[in-house]
Amino acid sequence: MSAEAVQSASPQTGSGVPVLARDELRSLVVAWTLKMKADGILPEKVLIAVKTLARDTMAPSAVPSDYDAQLRQELLADASQLCIDTYFNTTGSKRAD
């Protein structure tokens, strides 16, 4: 399914991000963070890797044009916080949708 189809078919969060996309992002960040932690990678390197992946994935050329810079920044912040929370097994720091 194309990004445009996902966006038009998915319910939106308060930020305008399709719920499906945000849920998939969360699942990927958690899985990747746990894998790297299990492999003994230091938390700062895990965070850099997650931020790099998220930034590259959300580059203007990779997402629909209506995903503006502020939205990409918000998703990057969400991915970063989720990475930290997951690595250190913390709760309560997630941003509300």
Describe the protein:
It contains 4 helices and no strands. The longest helix is centred in the N-terminal third of the chain and has 20 residues. The chain has one domain. Helix 2 runs parallel beside helix 4 and helix 3 runs antiparallel to helix 4. It has 97 residues and is mainly alpha-helical.
Helix share bin? 55-70%
| Computed CA radius of gyration, to the nearest angstrom | 14 Å
Structural class: mainly alpha
Number of helices: 4
Estimated share of beta-strand residues: under 5%
User: What coarse outline follows from CA principal-axis ratios?
Assistant: elongated
> How many extended strands?
0
What is the straight-line distance between the termini?
A: 23 Å
What's the topology here?
Blueprint: H1 3-9, H2 19-38, H3 43-57, H4 69-87
Summarize this structure as a short list of keywords or feature phrases.
mainly alpha, 63% helix, 4 helices, disordered N terminus, 97 residues
In short:
This protein has 97 residues and is mainly α. The chain is built from four helices and no strands.
